[in-house]
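Z., the sequence and structure:
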Amino acid sequence: MVTMMITSDNRTAASTISQPISTKKGIRRDTIIGWLFVVPALVMYAIFVLLPLLMSIQYSFFRWNGITAMTWVGLKNYITVLEDPDLLGTISNAFRLIIFFSIIPVSLGLVVASIIHRVETGRLGAIARTVLFLPQVIPLVAAGIIWGWLLSLSGLINQMLTTIGLGSFTRAWLGDFDWALPAVGFIGVWVLLGFCTVLLWTGMTKLDSALFESARIDGASWFTEFTRITIPLVRNEIGVCLTVTVIAALAAFDIVYVSTAGGPGNSTAVPGIQIYILAFTEQRIGPASALAVILMLLVLVVILPIQRLSRETT
């Protein structure tokens, strides 16, 4: 009897000890399997993102035309960028594009998404979201070409203005020194509005409808619901929209290159265009890399506060 009790206790103790060991082995196996799935993506990221980034930083300290031997110049390329008014002007244009690529789409997207969320009626709401999101599906190069035709001197926009008696306002929108940048910005609004609207609407669908019902019972207007409930509760989605659209503004290239190529003059020149010209037209790899590094730092300076504010609890 005593022997059986001792044997039973030993088996219980052995099973108790073996369970944590088997659990640890299972966790270790799952970790290894997880890393096997992640490693290919990390390798691709390292090759196509981290390595070019490190090479750009390296090239920014050298004078190089892409063919002959490199010559160390230290911070001279950065000084060249910071002292050249044309290069600084491209950065200024990029920050002006934030108004069109980020602030306007996010603001309008909040309003439109709130209206769709409030009055959505099945298929009609789905059609509205599809139509708004359609510009995201169209390649940006194609969008730039299409809007280049629409905004030309004989384009549809000017024809419509002439038809309604506003012919005095017609102009070559993308060829006007004062209106070229806002015209490019308008293309950005058209492209990014649908993205912001759909993303913000998705966030609103996750909100508890009881909050809105309680507010309506208390007599809250749509504007009160919008400012006191909707905006605070979709802060994370707003942060994502701002992050994506600000990066799109500061790193703009394809729409600008296709529609205006940075002209007329330098009125729509942005860092992406200037980096391309310096590196591939003028073969000045050093200043091009220095401008790219400065642009990356500016993006981080702008994006990190947005990320931090969007994650703060209300």
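Residues 1-7, 13-17 have pLDDT under 50 and may be disordered. The chain has two domains: 16-59, 78-311.

Let me know what you think.
H.
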